[in-house]
């Protein structure tokens, strides 16, 4: 089943946010059990890939991309039903479109704790056996117990005796042993349940695709345990672009690749090895960050004053050689000394009033300096990224898929193409570089995943109704192929699904909500069914719950027949 040759053929699949798909055996939100009826349905309609968003423990937060551990599974996803627990949700039908993850997690933990205490000897034995093979769990559990004790406070604000990992571990596993082993036990259950799903999927010919976030929360076990793996005075993000004049500041510390290399990338190897217990493929989040990342000073709120890291920078002598004092340019807010005698130019510095007011002869000397090392830097970034991706390949037999959305510089696009890395093409953004028009199915990249939406975008029906020019969309997706113009929302959605499955891309994986043919609320009010709106508060996202049970969804003959027909006619399996 793990053979790359078997995976790398024309396939269709579905992407789900696990807590959103509630099963009749779920406890208030989707859980690991939900994947069983999902798998059966996927098989029935001709899909052979199920992709999940990250399952990492988010602590008191919400975003799976801002987890408190790069390894631990969120206890939220443990199936009480699979544990043999008879506790049911308070309501038999779904009343609202939102989960309350912290409350649900706490309720689940309370139920599992009662089971743990009534089977303590056996449960602790299982926990200790798990610890023997999964040593990352020692530091995670130490962190998790302290994180609970101090109610989610940042680890650097904890009492000084808990700043030292070794003494903190000793304290938790000696003084709080029962509590520590309970948190290990939670991980053991989650591990066993996910491994069980992988086996079940393999038996019916479904491949599971996981997600590996590139970054981790500053207030996480990993940063607490390995601060040397991170550059703590920088935070990661993205530069300003047409979508955001101030760029994006994610707040995560920047990875210290030099320190990771000294330890033979052990942290990454352990992460990938653990992920492989559950998945056949995996998504490399923000693959551009493997080559270079937008680094912002820790104290800044926006991303405007950042730079691409790592960077050589322009040396003091290179400024002086053309008769410019770099300190004077720094005072004007055009450049920044990011390490002794080395400067970076701020993004769009030439738009600043202080640049525009410079004498033309000074501008003529200053601007070329900003481009001075670009060729050498791109060569360096490319080599660095390829080295990292090569190492990832050596650590795992999972098939890597790169999240290569956004402004991807040509040297990275060329690199990913030459590496035959599977990328992602979102239909609404996949347009001709020359004309700006949508591109036809046969012109999509072979080595990519074609999608209508992602977890960070609006649903495709929201895009269709409210974003961009409707007439040009109708002409391209319907008139061009001689299809009658759609009269209903379901006809629009079916036409878009037909297009995305027909693309040349090796995989076509659609967000679960974009497959909701016949479910009027999702199709007519897609804005209510979005998972995440980037740049908005954490707690207003990541709580989405699909309006009907997965079993009810899976039993709709007409929808299944339509999807099966679309998949089959596209030559996908």
Percentage of β-strand residues: 5-15%
Strand order of the largest sheet: 12-6-3-2-1-15-14-13
* Biggest β-sheet description: 8 strands, parallel
Shape: globular
Mean pLDDT comes to 95
In the predicted model, the low-confidence regions spanning at least 5 consecutive residues are none
Q: How many strands?
A: 15
Distance, first to last CA: 15 Å
Helix content: 40-55%
Derived structural class:
alpha/beta
Tally the helices: what do you get?
22
Q: Radius of gyration over alpha carbons?
A: 25 Å
List keywords for this structure.
573 residues, alpha/beta, 4-stranded antiparallel beta sheet, 15 strands, 13% strand, 4-alpha-glucanotransferase, transferase
Describe this structure in words.
- With 573 residues, this protein is α/β, with parallel strands linked by helices.
- The chain has a domain at 226-263 and 288-398.
- The protein is built from 22 helices and 15 strands.
- The chain has helices at residues 4-7, 35-45, 101-118, 120-133, 136-149, 165-175, 177-204, 221-225, 257-262, 266-275, 316-321, 326-331, 353-356, 360-370, 374-395, 410-418, 460-466, 470-477, 489-502, 520-524, 550-554, 557-569; strands spanning 11-16, 49-52, 207-212, 230-238, 248-255, 281-284, 293-297, 307-309, 314-315, 335-339, 342-345, 399-402, 423-426, 448-451, 507-511.
- The strands form three sheets. It has an eight-stranded parallel sheet with strand order 12-6-3-2-1-15-14-13, covered by helices on one side.
- Helix 2 runs parallel beside helix 7 (177-204).
- The longest helix is centred in the first third of the chain and has 28 residues, at 177-204.
- It is globular and about 80 Å long.
- The protein starts with a helix and ends with a helix.
């Amino acid at each position: 089943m793990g053979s790359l040759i078997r995976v790398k053929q024309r396939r269709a699949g579905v992407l789900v946010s696990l807590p959103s798909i509630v099963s009749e055996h779920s406890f208030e939100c989707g859980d690991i059990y939900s994947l069983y009826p999902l798998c059966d349905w996927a098989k029935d309609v001709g899909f052979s890939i199920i992709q999940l968003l990250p399952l990492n423990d988010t602590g008191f937060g919400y975003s799976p991309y801002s987890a408190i551990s790069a390894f631990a599974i969120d206890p939220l996803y443990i199936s009480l039903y699979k544990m043999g627990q008879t506790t049911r949700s308070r309501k038999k039908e779904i009343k609202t479109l939102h989960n309350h993850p912290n409350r649900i997690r706490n309720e689940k933990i309370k139920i599992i704790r009662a089971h743990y205490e009534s089977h303590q000897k056996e449960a602790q034995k299982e926990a200790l056996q798990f610890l023997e093979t999964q040593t990352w769990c020692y530091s995670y559990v130490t962190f998790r117990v302290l994180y609970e004790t101090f109610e989610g406070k940042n680890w650097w604000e904890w009492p000084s005796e808990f700043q030292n990992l070794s003494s903190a571990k000793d304290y938790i596993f000696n003084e709080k042993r029962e509590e520590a082993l309970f948190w290990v036990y939670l991980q053991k259950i989650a591990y066993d349940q996910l491994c069980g799903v992988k086996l079940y999927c393999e038996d019916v010919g479904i491949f599971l695709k996981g997600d590996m976030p590139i970054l981790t929360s500053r207030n996480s076990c990993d940063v607490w345990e390995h601060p040397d793996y991170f550059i703590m005075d920088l935070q990661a993000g993205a530069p300003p672009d047409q979508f955001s004049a101030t760029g994006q500041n994610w707040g995560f510390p920047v990875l210290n690749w030099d320190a990771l290399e000294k330890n033979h990338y052990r942290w990454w190897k352990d992460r990938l090895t653990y992920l492989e217990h559950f998945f056949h493929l995996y998504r490399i989040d923000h693959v551009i960050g493997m080559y270079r990342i937008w680094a912002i000073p820790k104290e800044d709120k926006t991303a405007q004053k950042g730079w691409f890291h790592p960077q050589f920078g322009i040396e003091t002598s290179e400024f002086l050689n053309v008769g410019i004092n770099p300190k004077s340019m720094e005072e004007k807010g055009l450049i920044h000394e990011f390490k002794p005698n080395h400067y970076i130019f701020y993004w769009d510095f030439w738009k600043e009033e202080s640049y525009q007011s410079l004498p033309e002869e000074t501008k003529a000397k200053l601007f070329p300096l900003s481009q001075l090392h670009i060729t050498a830097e791109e060569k360096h970034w490319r080599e660095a990224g390829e080295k990292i991706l090569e190492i990832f390949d050596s650590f795992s037999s999972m098939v890597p898929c790169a999240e290569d959305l956004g402004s991807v510089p040509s040297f990275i696009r060329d690199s990913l193409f030459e590496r035959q890395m599977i990328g992602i093409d979102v239909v609404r953004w996949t347009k001709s570089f020359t004309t700006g028009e949508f591109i036809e199915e046969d012109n999509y990249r072979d080595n990519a995943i074609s999608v209508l939406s992602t977890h960070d975008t609006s649903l495709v029906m929201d895009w269709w109704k409210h974003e961009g020019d409707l007439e040009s969309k109708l002409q391209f997706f319907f008139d061009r192929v001689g299809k009658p113009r759609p009269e209903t929302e379901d006809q629009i959605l079916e036409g878009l699904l037909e297009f995305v499955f027909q693309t040349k891309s090796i995989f076509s994986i659609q967000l679960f909500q974009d497959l909701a043919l016949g479910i009027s609320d999702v199709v007519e009010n897609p804005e209510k069914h979005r998972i995440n709106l980037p740049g908005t508060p954490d707690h207003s996202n990541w709580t989405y719950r699909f309006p009907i049970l997965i079993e009810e969804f899976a039993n709709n003959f007409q929808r299944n027949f339509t999807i099966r027909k679309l998949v089959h006619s596209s030559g996908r399996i």
